[in-house]
Amino acid sequence: MDSYESTHQHIASSRLKDYFIGATPLQKRLESVRKQTSFVPTPPRRKIPQCSQLQEDNDPQKVAFLLHKQWTLYSLTPLYKFSYTNLKEYASLLSAFIAAEKQKGLAVEVGEDFNIKVTFSTLLGMKGTQRDPEAFLVQILSKSQLPSENREHKVLWTGWFCCIFGDSLLETVSEDFTCVPLFLANGAETNTAIVGTWFQKTFDCYFSPLAINAFNLSWMAAMWTACKMDQYMAATEFLWSVPCSPQSLDISYAIHPEDAKALWDSVHKTPGEVTQEEVDLFMDCLYSHFHRHFKIHLSATRLVRVSTSVASAHTDGKIKVSLNKSSYVIFPYCYIVFKMYGICIFHIEEAQWNANLRQ
Amino acid sequence: MSVLRPLDKQPGLNTATILLVGTEDALLQQLADAMLKEDCASELKIHLARSLPLPSDVNRPRIDLIMFVVNLHSKYSLQNVEESLRHVDATFFLGKVGFLAMGAGQESHCSIHRNTVTKLANTYRSPLFFCDLEREGFRATVAQRLVRMLQICAGHVPGVSALNLLSLLRSSENPAPEDL
Amino acid sequence: MDETVAEFFKRTILKIPMTEMMTILKAWDFLSEKQLQNVNFRQRKESLVQDLVLLCEKKRASVHDAALLDIVYTQFHRHRKVWDVFQMSKGPGEDIDLFDMEQFKSSFKKILQRALKNVMVSFRDAEENAVWIRIAWGTQYRKPNQYKPVYVVYYSQTPYAFTSSCPLRSNIPLLGQALTVASNHHKIVKMDLRSRYLDSLKAIVFKQYNQTFETYNSTTPLQEKSLELDIHMDSRIIHENRIEKERVQRVTQETFGDYSQPRLEFAQYKLETKFKSDFNGDILAERKEPLRCLIKFSSPHLLEALKSLAPAGIADAPLSPLLTCIPNKGMNYFKIKDK
């Protein structure tokens, strides 16, 4: 009797202990949120990644394909029971689902020949650390009607899922889940919606549009400006929206990329990393140069878009890498991709942190 | 153009005076209106200023509480507050200063990281409240809180002092600066 | 009527929104009131267009009539074009001579036809002694293209002409020549001024923008009073920066005036100025070259937007002369360099 009670007590107390130290994933998550509330969540500095990982094992053709497209960003909750070994099966299920959605009401057999095809494939190397799960690509292709035409498939829609430096997110995810918090889509929104629905139904996950706020836009601008390139294709341009009424006002501020780089170099003091102070000072320099001419405080307005020779990003969550093929060979393009997607992931972490705070 | 000091004047009879400092004129005005709607035994005076120092040629009552309003969408508003803070006497920070950070709800518009204001408030050992002044319901909540704080800072609530309140707020909401 | 003319009619009428059809046809003044009454305006647009083209055919309408209809349409939809301004000047000692509109038209047309052979020029007189000119360009070997015309608005006896942007850049000098010679001027330059709002451009170059103030004057004092009232509404709210606010209001009013601003949608500045830092002396201190920037302001109503900046606390008062000089200088494209 005694022994029973003591075991019972022991179990209870260990559960209690689990509860306090946050042993279950949910508790771990809460714990990490709590930690974050008391610690500074912004990295006051970001390392400029040495792009070993990406360059070694990625498939250049696939990555090239990811450049030059405009992507709409979404954040994504972890996928439940997703398995990298089932990609083929997912492809046929999703293709059937799309077929069914497109001709609602009609029963469609799995694997039936329809004029679209879905593919799932992994994007090797598109990750920040070894712990990050592999990125994967989903495409909707149209099957050509004529069999003679070499069976060339036209890409109708592309989406990919990735996790780059998702360390603190991974920490809180239990083994049944796969954490690829960033989803990028290119193609008709109706297709994005259908794919989203299927993922939601199949993996119990939730997509939400990812806006990029001015704070992160300035980070991107600073880091892209910092990239040394042999040939600049476009100006470094900032677009500001001025909150004045009743008439709206937009201000575009384009700087010759070499001059922008010179300004950055003059501000940038810490080799190998970029600090918050540097980003702030860079932006303050732009504000002050502008104010000197126009007497307008750009710092009171809202940054909505940045675009550079390297890439562009809009606050509504649209990004595009604009490196061309020749420049990405000589240029460690992954560096850019890293930074951009890294910021997005960081942003997702932040958003979760904020949401948890509000609850 | 002088430094603002907390106890350089006699208090007015049953009067509690707050000074709201921030670049968002229209919203400060609305916040002031909302505060006046609150049911309150003290006689409220609300001074609105874009920045400090205040014009020196004016006779004004003793200021019991200063609230600095930062719009998270505007770096300019933060810089303005940082500038203004230099014109406040250190003794004010014994519970008679607070920060309001507005606009956190609209995350996609933020150009200032929440943490930057948290750090600012901690540097000045003063409480920070996140709020949304654009929506009436939320504004009323903030107004109510400010009126209550103001009454305490003016000494109209028996048994609580400004410094008392500050230490209470610090232990419950904001981590002590040493933790950061 | 040959097929190309019928097609030109068809396309021109198709452009006209149904709600404006009657107004525009009446302004065109080619079909009689009675003829218009017999047309069913309630049918589908395609059928209506067919009926109207038939009617024009019956009345033996020419390509020139179609061009006139196109001018009328463009007059109604002038905001859809971006207008350039040309300024002409007389040579030294040249006197103001008598201006004859008919002579202007014929010599304008002659100059273009001599150079290009195939060019169609149509005129339509408008209010305030203005003439609207439509030019369908062709070449020695090619017939005039009716679908890429250029419109020119010239106010007689003034040194200004307004043109819609020209698809053939090479024709601009010729157009300039025709304008100068026909209007008895000596030289022509394209101003750095562009807008969709023809009337505002006119107001700017003719310095008429401050004359509209009579219509606005009566309402402004009222607005001002209500603002004052606002501030003093509750004696328990004290505005510490009232004096500064009033100064900003006053300065803004002095700079922009009481009247509503002429309407421009953009202004552009090419800056080549050296960077000077407010915070930190050593930023770009050793750099001799200027910072090359291109700043573009765009707004549905730029000058009104600029006017609102200082009162909203987003800009200093007074605003930079670079911005406030726009209507005065008649410029919205600038190149700025260090002295």
Automatic annotation (TrEMBL), chain A:
Lineage, highest ranks first: Eukaryota, Metazoa, Chordata, Craniata, Vertebrata
Subcellular location: Chromosome, Centromere; Nucleus
PANTHER family attached to this UniProt entry: CENTROMERE PROTEIN L (PTHR31740)
Record key words, sorted: Centromere, Chromosome, Nucleus
Gene Ontology cellular-component terms listed: inner kinetochore; nucleus
Record-given protein name: Centromere protein L
The UniProt record lists the keyword Nucleotide-binding: no
Principal subcellular localization: nucleus
Gene: CENPL
Entry's family note: Belongs to the CENP-L/IML3 family.
TrEMBL record, chain B:
Keyword Nucleus in record: yes
Record keyword Lipid biosynthesis present: no
Localization, UniProt: Chromosome, Centromere, Kinetochore; Cytoplasm; Nucleus
GO cellular component term, pick one: inner kinetochore
Quaternary organization: Component of the CENPA-NAC complex, at least composed of CENPA, CENPC, CENPH, CENPM, CENPN, CENPT and CENPU. The CENPA-NAC complex interacts with the CENPA-CAD complex, composed of CENPI, CENPK, CENPL, CENPO, CENPP, CENPQ, CENPR and CENPS.
Organism for this UniProt entry: Canis lupus dingo
Main localization category: nucleus
Alphabetized Pfam families for the sequence: CENP-M
Residues of the signal peptide: none
The encoding gene: CENPM
Gene3D superfamilies, per the entry: P-loop containing nucleotide triphosphate hydrolases
Protein name: Centromere protein M
Coiled coil spans: none
Keywords on record: Centromere, Chromosome, Cytoplasm, Kinetochore, Nucleus
Function statement: Component of the CENPA-NAC (nucleosome-associated) complex, a complex that plays a central role in assembly of kinetochore proteins, mitotic progression and chromosome segregation. The CENPA-NAC complex recruits the CENPA-CAD (nucleosome distal) complex and may be involved in incorporation of newly synthesized CENPA into centromeres.
UniProtKB/TrEMBL annotation, chain C:
GO cellular component labels: inner kinetochore; nucleoplasm
GO biological process: CENP-A containing chromatin assembly; chromosome segregation
Pfam name, any one: CENP-N
Subcellular location: Chromosome, Centromere; Nucleus
Keywords: Centromere, Chromosome, Nucleus
Similarity comment: family membership: Belongs to the CENP-N/CHL4 family.
Name this protein carries in UniProt: Centromere protein N
